[in-house]
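Lecture notes, structural biology module. Today: joint structure prediction for complexes of two components.
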Amino acid sequence: MRIHFDWRLARVIDSDGNVIDELVWSGKRSVGALADRLAELQSGRLSPEARVLSERFSEAETDHLGAMSDPDWPEADGDEQTLLAEATDRLARRGVADAAGDLDRRLDMLSSAASELRASWTTSEARCVEWAGLFLSEADLDAQRRDIPGAVADADSIDGAAEALGIPAPEHQPSPAEWDALRSHATGVVELTGRLDAAEDATRELAGGYLPTLSMVVGPLGAAKLVVLAGGRERLARMPSGSLQVLGASGAMAAHRRGAPPPKHSPVLFSLPQVSRSPRWVRGKISRFLAGKCSIAVRVDHFDGEPWDEEQIAEINREVDAIKARFPKPPKRG
Amino acid sequence: MAKPVKLGWGVRREGRSGIWTRNAVKGISVRGERRKRDSRIEWRAWDPNRSKVAAALLRTNNDPTGLLPEPGATCLYLGASYGGTVSFVHDMVCGSGNHLEGQIIAVEIAPRAMRELAALASQRPGLVPVLGDARLPHTVSPYIRGKADWIHQDLSMADQAETFVKMAGAFLKPGGAGLLSLKAASERSSDGDDDTRFAKAERILEESNLEIVERIDLAGFEEQHVVFHVRKPVD
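The predicted structure, tokenised, for the full assembly:
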């Protein structure tokens, strides 16, 4: 005995092809109701009618593909075809809209925007400081670095900028057109700084809630980057720590496919202060250790574990220090 | 200009590499392709550099008509993406206002692509956009009106051949045609180089209940891609 069904009806059919029982969807047929129904069917569940019949005939086998090749299956009439077409369209559009509810996608947009802004901020800010510094020969390009773009953007002339920075007016003046270009460049840098801060703050907030434990281990921005590179939190959580360890080293990984030695480190982990501020000869050891901790941390976050507390994070940091203490000197070359 | 060669209803080849389909939605190009009028009919250029099905039509050693669905057919398109190729299949299977009464189930997993596909479907009755995993039969079964006459699978993921065998087994009508676009780079690198991966896919198809009609190499149009043309035997 088998149960064949589609969105309209369900039938119990015996081995000779006789219809033993039939239930037709009797509720109000609207586009929204049918879209809900299709979503259920599409996720592999039974229709409500098929569920009732399978309770009534517990020995009958349900067959998702049965109705499709059943020669006696009633044809959909014109109204039903129209309703199905509308509901299908509704469901597809609903799925597109629901993508915005997916935190992985939101984090991807935010974190990628933050990384791109960071890249262009670095270039623009350096150019702005060098450019203004060419004229403002007395400015301290290290100590006053943060103030230079703002001072130039708010000034009417290069002399005004010098005054704002508390240094003597420069010997050489830029031409009016040159000054306009310099000032609008500086205005751009100030504005870019604001955009970068907004994107990074929002990333920190989202990652802090979505990846609390991983954020504590590698910082919220690092946590967001790892998830984005893995293609989602679940994929990162299911990734072995050996893959996590080389996440982001896509160029080296591609070279490895063509026969080069495998990449050893992830640029995300390697740029963490725990790694990058450590002596060169322990960086690999620390990043392997942290990769292991990260892969546990993201599993805690994804599979609803108890988030780690400060004490557990402190223990990880102690372990990092212990690794450094164990290898105080670079290995001898042999 | 040489006389156009008819490849099927609403599909023709002109010259060496021009393929045109009869536009089901007059005045609109789906992705900026050329259109031209020939009395009351408008034709749309099907670029073999952008569509693996079009490339396969030019590269096959057999009659290209066998690669295409008949007008009014039930078609399953797995991995529809933004719907470029789907729109040409729609031209020949459904036609304007679906007067040919075809059905094309277009499955795509990416919401970004589905956005364009859903917009395309509202202009083209008979085209059914489904957002879901093309590897699962129940993604397709609520929508398809019967077994399919024609299946095309173009997924960028590992185990493409296994998926194709499973889906064609569930949905292809005996005697129906299937096209599997295989991208070597999507298979696991541990499976060896491109040729080894194609050979592995070929073996999986041979061991299935499908019959390989032809293996079409798309070199020149699409590197590292082959299209397998299969047929489900009538039992």
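Point to remember: Helices of chain B lie at 52-59, 84-93, 111-123, 137-140, 160-171, 194-207.
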